[in-house]
TrEMBL record:
Listed Pfam families: DDE_Tnp_ISL3 (PF01610), HTH_Tnp_ISL3 (PF13542), Zn_ribbon_ISL3 (PF14690)
NCBIfam families, per the entry: transpos_ISL3
Full protein name: ISL3 family transposase
Domain Transposase IS204/IS1001/IS1096/IS1165 DDE: 149-380
Residue ranges annotated for the Transposase IS204/IS1001/IS1096/IS1165 helix-turn-helix domain, each copy included: 89-134
Bilayer-crossing regions: none
Domain Transposase IS204/IS1001/IS1096/IS1165 zinc-finger, residue spans: 34-78
Length: 451
């Protein structure tokens, strides 16, 4: 009888209850008698008992402790002693196997401290179980390598590299850092990486070096979002400078309006347009910087890379001397990254800008103190099943032709005739593949209270 434990592998003998805990005395219903030292199974003798204490799933709001007397056995073949293996007990963690599985799953949803309190163990044990659980998920989880790969980063405590499938708008992975060695290691781990034709990145040099080393066949494209964002940063530097030196003490108002200055003029509603226009009329230097920011977007409105470069040179020549310093990062970016910025105009105009919404919302969750470590956040984002995007893939496969003679003569025909190309035909096979975490679904979840 399993009693309150409901564990077939244990026979319940007695039970005690306090305000916060259950204590159950039990014995193994069966044990494994195989000697771990020499493999002997039959010449085994009992050699006393060893009391052990294991944790089990919380029940009725109380922690559960199981007291077990586990047989000690002696192998007569090698004369060594060992403790019998008990079904359903994980001796490494001093818990039942079901509790280990439960903690692993729950650690994606709750903090280590919350789980430790529920079960009656320390936080270090919870983290160790979580690490083992995630390692198993990592081993079993397979994702498809994209044709267009996006590389970006997110700042969660420090900068972490993120990889996306641009065509399918899916997150592939998040790394604990963005070091060159880490990027190379990840790219080399991708299956069928030769299918990657384009890689979109920002202007972080280790990304470029890693792609050129591991994916020489891929066209590297600097994401236009990161190019024009430098102009926004330059405009913001001018705004801050004016706010500090303004004698009319209007710096606070300028600061409140900073998000409006970052928006495209065409995206402003009537009220926002009036606000921005008012500030620009007050500060001619700010108006000149805003005009430069807006006109840089025109570089991306042309058709060819030659036209784009000419448009940029015209833009650069129009920078007033008093704005040369704040807009210097834009000039440096175009001079140092010209080839890869202009690759945007070659064929497919790829951009990884959609990941910025993901970055902003994940940063908010991380910053708001939901108890997430980077490891927990990554595991929840990558391995939650309802977030996975699965799509059909068609593949060409070689299959053996089935002939009348083969059917009548049985297997002997295959042995006598061998394998020839004429015996095979190519067919199209459809399979479902996981392209990663669906970003639109994840963004909706991040906006809800269910994440």
């Amino acid at each position: 009888m399993s009693g309150i434990l409901n564990l077939p592998g244990l026979r319940e003998l007695d039970k005690k209850e306090s305000e916060t805990e259950y204590h159950v005395k039990a014995e193994p219903a069966a044990i494994a008698r195989l000697c771990p030292h020499c493999g002997e199974l039959h010449r085994i003798q009992r050699h006393g008992n060893r009391p052990i204490y294991v944790r089990d799933l919380p029940t009725h709001g109380k922690t559960m402790m199981i007291h077990l007397d586990v047989p000690r056995l002696k192998c007569m073949a090698c004369q060594r002693t060992f403790t019998a293996v008990v079904q359903e007990i994980d001796e490494g963690f001093q818990m039942t196997e079901r509790l280990v599985r439960w903690i692993g799953r729950q650690s994606l949803e709750y903090t280590y401290a919350e789980l430790a309190k529920q079960v009656g163990i320390d936080e270090k044990s919870v983290r160790t179980i979580f690490d083992a659980y995630v390692a198993k998920l990592e081993k079993d989880f397979k994702r498809e390598t994209p044709v267009w790969l996006g590389i970006d980063e997110i700042k969660l405590g420090r900068f972490r590299a993120i990889f996306t499938n641009i065509q399918d708008r899916a997150l592939i992975d998040m790394l604990p850092d963005r070091y060159h060695t880490s990027i190379v290691r990840f790219l080399e781990s991708l299956p069928n990486k030769e299918r990657i034709t384009h890689v979109s990145t920002d202007m972080w040099r280790p990304y470029r070096l890693a792609v050129q080393r591991v994916l020489p066949q891929a066209k590297l494209v600097v994401d236009k979002f990161h190019v024009v964002s430098k102009a926004n940063a330059s405009l913001d530097a001018v705004r801050r400078s004016i706010g500090k030196t303004d004698q009319k003490k209007q710096g606070a108002g300028l600061k409140k309006a900073h998000k409006l200055f970052a928006k495209r003029a065409a995206d402003l509603n009537d009220e926002q347009y009036i606000t921005v226009s008012g500030w620009l009329n007050c500060f001619p230097l700010l108006a000149a910087a805003y005009d430069l920011k807006e006109r840089l977007y025109a570089v991306y409105d042309v058709e060819t890379k030659e036209e784009a470069w000419a448009e940029y040179l015209n833009w650069e020549a129009s920078i007033p001397d008093e704005l040369a310093k704040p807009f210097r990062p834009v000039k440096t970016a175009f001079r140092n990254w010209k080839e890869w910025i202009l690759n945007y105009f070659d064929d497919h105009r790829i951009t990884n800008a959609f990941t910025e919404s993901f970055n902003a919302k994940v940063r908010r969750v991380y910053r708001n103190g939901h108890g997430y470590t980077f490891e927990r956040l990554r595991a929840k984002v990558l391995f939650t099943d309802r977030l996975q995007k699965r799509i059909p893939f068609q593949e060409k496969v070689k299959v053996k032709k089935q002939r009348f003679e083969d059917i009548s003569m049985g297997r002997m025909t295959y042995f006598m005739m061998g394998s020839f190309d004429d015996d095979y035909e190519v067919k199209i096979k459809t399979r479902m593949g996981n392209v990663g975490t669906d970003l639109p679904t994840l963004l909706a979840l991040l906006d809800s209270d269910d994440f």
